[in-house]
Amino acid sequence: MTISWLLTNFLAAFALPPLNLLLLGSIGLWLPRRKWKLGRALIFLCVSGLWLLSTPIVANLLIDSLKPSPIGLTGKEADAIVILGGGRNRDSLEYGGDTLSRYSLERVRYGAWLAKRLHKPILVTGGAPDGGILSEGDIMRTALQSEFGVETRWVERYSRNTRENARNSAEILREAGIQRIYLITHSWHLSRAMPEFVAAGLQVTPAGTGYSMNKGISPLDFLPSAHALDDSYLALHEWIGLLWYRIRN
Fold first, then answer.
1. pLDDT of residue 57
2. What's the total number of domains in the chain?
3. Which of 8, 36, 62, 193 is the most exposed place for a label (fewest CB within 10 A)?
4. Which structural domain, as residue segments, surrounds residue 124?
């Protein structure tokens, strides 16, 4: 586990729900009595913020704000497929070691489907910033071959974040004479990932997964759920990531 990865994720936790709101409410509880109005206001913000971010209607709005419109792919737009890692499950008992997380598996599945349809070579990218023996790239390559029957031509296994995914992948593809790619990641991640790959010198056609049809609004969309809070967390994580990359630029 790298110190920079650990520090980045530790600090990010304080800016994201639920920790940021829980800290806000805790401050409100511990304020002295003479500041009871401020304390009650902070507690109200904590409770109302958690409620809103836990409702599907708010979570969907946040997630949808990141998604570019899907486009039809014909096979003429690019010459290779790049699949971004989305995390690992460490020391999985049923698999006897590290395996793909939910998000990585969804991306790999779509990448395999697209490769069979468009007949394009695949590059997988993802390191092991949180420790472990195998990188995300190596695990994705194994899954593509053993579970989907698709070969991987290139593996990038040293990146620690989206920016390094882009830079390291671009270097590999330049050596192979490839400049145009289909970029596979979740639709809510494309807004942050695409500019990084473009900045690395690649021509990018988005190939997002995780789109869903609009089913309209129901009363259940206003009731809190853990799944909705998770979606809100993902969306705010991406918006903070976009802001951080712009500041660093």
1. 96
2. 2
3. 36
4. 80-209
